[in-house]
Amino acid sequence: MKCPGQDMQYWNESAIYEETCPKCGGTVEFYKDDTNRKCGRCGHRMVNPRLDFGCAAYCPFAEQCLGTLPEEFVGNQDNLLKDRVAVEVKRYLKSDFRRIGHIMRVAQQAEKIARDEGANLGITLCAAYLLEIGEIEAAARYGTPTADQIIAEGQRLAAAILGRLAAKEPIVQGVGTLIEAYHRRSDRDSLEIQVLADAADLARLEEMRRDDPLQVREFGLPMVERLLTASARQLAQKMIAL
């Protein structure tokens, strides 16, 4: 079976394009399914900058496809990792669609804010997907869990999921640190924590706009004042204005 994305019958004129070699400034032509190509001028082999690996989170042919990439590039695909984390979290939550929807909204808001603010995108987005799973596990185990119990369960589950995905140790440690700081409401000087706190508030505002739009302005305006990043404040103001 051939991946539809690699089948030329589905391609259009945008499937072939030119990129600039980062070494010599020469022009390198890519087909959209090329993982890498060699520059004809200097011989540098460059990775296709437009190739999107999000499909690898679910595609059964992902291992074959990614195997053609330089090893160091595969290891640093933060966007691929966060997509795979999202799939693992959905598997963990099974049919809890309300919780899945909420976590996806938090992650979407976190991505917008992190890009604008310049936060560490890979660690922040992995943490955004994994922030709340500790609450679920701790509640099932302890009934009314303490912050320490929520953090311990969250870090344990996050480490297990990231370990299955072969995430590098700095990412595992970074996500664990963010989970602890988020639930303790500490380290607000950390940009990544600011992004996660704001993303959670924006997700709640988004849900309020869906469920009770008449309350959005009343509760949204005070929320804008307590948001920690300029990007989140702009996003909140747009939601309130709609």
Topology:
Elements: E1 16-20, E2 27-31, E3 36-38, E4 45-47, H1 62-66, H2 71-75, H3 78-93, H4 97-117, H5 121-130, H6 133-142, H7 147-164, H8 169-184, H9 191-211, H10 216-226, H11 230-241
Antiparallel strand pairs: 1-2, 3-4
Helix pairs in contact: 3-4, 3-5, 4-5, 4-9, 5-8, 5-9, 6-7, 7-8, 9-10, 9-11, 10-11
In which range does the helix fraction lie?
55-70%
State the order of secondary-structure elements, H for helix, E for strand: EEEEHHHHHHHHHHH
CATH architectural label of the largest domain: Orthogonal Bundle
Structural class: mainly alpha
Biggest sheet, spatial arrangement of strands:
1-2
Stretches where pLDDT is under 50 for at least 5 consecutive residues are: none
Number of strands: 4
CATH superfamily of the largest domain, called what?
Hypothetical protein af1432
Distance between the termini: 46 Å
The CATH class label of the largest domain is Mainly Alpha
Overall shape:
globular
Compute the CA-based radius of gyration: 21 Å
**What name does the CATH topology of the largest domain carry?**
Hypothetical protein af1432
Number of domains: 2
- Calculate the mean pLDDT score and round it: 85
Description:
- The protein has eleven helices and four strands, in the order ββββααααααααααα.
- A hairpin with a 6-residue loop joins strand 3 and strand 4.
- The model has no long low-confidence stretch (mean pLDDT 85).
- The chain has 242 residues and is mainly alpha-helical.
- It is 60% helix and 7% strand.
- The longest helix has 21 residues.
- Helix 9 packs antiparallel against helix 10 and helix 10 packs antiparallel against helix 11.
- It folds into two domains: 61 residues; 164 residues, Hypothetical protein af1432 (Orthogonal Bundle), CATH 1.10.3210.10.
- The protein has a two-stranded antiparallel ribbon with strand order 1-2.
- It is globular.
